[in-house]
Write a structure and sequence with these properties.
The protein contains 13 helices and 18 strands. The chain is of the alpha/beta class.
Length: about 425
């Protein structure tokens, strides 16, 4: 028994195409594409009547736990260092395992309702390390989103905390299956001593995965890395052989061209987070210089990839360095395909059936030539009507099928209140 999507306009991002064709899905994959496909006797037929069939979006850098910090009353930090010390790190320290799982469900629900079917999460809960990635996976599993999870290893809590982080990120990577994969994660380079870098290298060799880490989000990363450890971040990462085509560097807003070129030469993925950069006032990352292996992430902001793509494009135009927003979105699919070792994104035979149905009544012709303009100026999460992951409907008629949004919101508010109370009492 399969599912036949009939009468929709099927969208692909690179090369761009918009074509009125049918898709047949069986199991977890697209098995046929063509005009007026004939359904089998047991197939479910979904009449789309001109709606868009869009590839499921990939959030290449997210912080699921941040959903519990929304609206948190906090001091006004005067610098990036103050932001870390007064807000971000105290919040992470206040997370317990129950809060981690609730945040994953709430954040995953928001993500899938916005059209994200795969997200890469870099997690940190220094006082609740062991089991935190498994709890995140459980939360995401409730919603049905695909997840690539890593724990941000750091020396911030001492050697014991570092080793706990390494064990957690390696342990999850070894046992992740199905819709989940694990990666090795790291905190900012200035929080990593030489022993931590060595441990990360050993973890990468053990798991065969790549490193997911923030790089040069603020000039503080280079200054403190040099002061504390004798070399700037890129030198230390290269010396430790931590950069590769499987590595993922988020932010990358403050690197000299010589350092940026060295990172590019390793094949490392660059993860652009323009809304987060603006919100934290750390400056504009030069996305046009990020090369062919660059994608988008939302970091700690709302998990809306359509909004992120629009912000990325418009901010790049303002900087006089316009990016190809369709390539940035399509690269998310290439990254997910690399990690899951399966085609994710192409609306073609053999690809995993991760897709969206968008109820978008275009006011102008929607073609391959105009697709980018519709993504930047028209399409949005408000148009997401249905979401399929691995061939299973997870959202239908704008309603999640496996969780009750009201219950998820109530649990999230309770967890947030408990986290905020622990922050106040610390």
């Amino acid at each position: 028994m399969g599912t036949v999507l009939k009468g929709g306009f099927v969208v692909e991002l690179e090369p761009a195409s918009v074509e009125r064709v049918d898709l047949r899905i069986e199991g977890e994959r697209i098995v046929a594409r063509g005009e007026d496909l004939a359904p089998g006797p047991d197939d479910e037929v979904v009449a789309l009547s001109g709606k868009l069939v869009f590839p499921g979006l990939v959030n290449a850098h997210h912080r699921l736990a941040s959903v519990l910090a929304r609206g948190l009353v906090r001091p006004t930090p005067t610098s990036y260092q103050a932001l870390l010390e007064q807000v971000r790190w105290p919040f992470e320290n206040a997370l317990d395992l129950d809060a981690v799982q609730v945040a994953a469900t709430a954040g995953g629900l928001e993500s899938i309702q916005c059209g994200t079917t795969t997200l890469f999460d870099l997690h940190a809960s220094p006082k609740a390390v062991t089991g935190s990635l498994l709890r995140s996976a459980r939360g995401l599993h409730e919603v049905g989103v695909r997840g690539v999870l890593s724990y941000a290893v750091t020396d911030r809590m001492g050697a014991v905390g570092r080793e706990e982080g390494l064990e957690e990120t390696v342990s999850f990577a070894r046992k992740a299956r199905g819709r989940f994969r694990g990666q090795v994660g790291a905190g900012p380079c200035f929080t990593l001593g030489d022993d931590a870098l060595q441990g990360l290298g050993e973890a990468l060799n053990t798991t065969g995965t790549g490193l997911h880490f923030p790089l040069a989000e603020d000039p503080l990363d280079e200054r403190l890395s040099t002061e504390r450890h004798g070399n700037p971040p890129v030198t230390r990462l290269l010396t430790s052989n931590l950069l590769s085509p499987r590595a993922m560097a988020a932010h990358v807003g403050h690197l000299a061209w010589a350092d940026l070129a060295q990172v590019l030469a390793t094949g490392t993925w660059f993860l652009h987070t323009p809304r987060s950069n603006q919100g934290q006032e750390v400056g504009y990352a030069p996305a046009l210089k990020f090369g062919a292996r660059a994608s988008l992430g939302t970091d700690g902001t709302s998990p809306d990839l359509f909004a992120e793509a629009q912000a990325a494009y418009l901010r790049s135009r303002e900087a006089g360095q316009p990016i190809d927003v369709l390539r940035y979105l399509a690269n998310g699919h290439r990254l997910a395909s690399q990690v899951f070792e399966a085609a994710i994104g192409p609306m073609r035979e053999g690809a995993l059936a991760d897709l969206l149905v968008l109820d978008y009544l275009s006011p102008t012709p929607l073609t391959a030539e105009t697709l980018a303009w519709h993504v930047v100026h028209g399409l949005g999460s408000r148009h997401v009507e249905a979401v399929m992951v691995d061939g299973v409907w997870r959202v239908w008629a704008r309603r999640p099928l496996s969780v009750n949004p009201t219950v998820v919101a109530e649990q999230s508010r309770e967890a947030a209140a408990a986290v905020w109370a622990r922050m106040s009492s610390s």
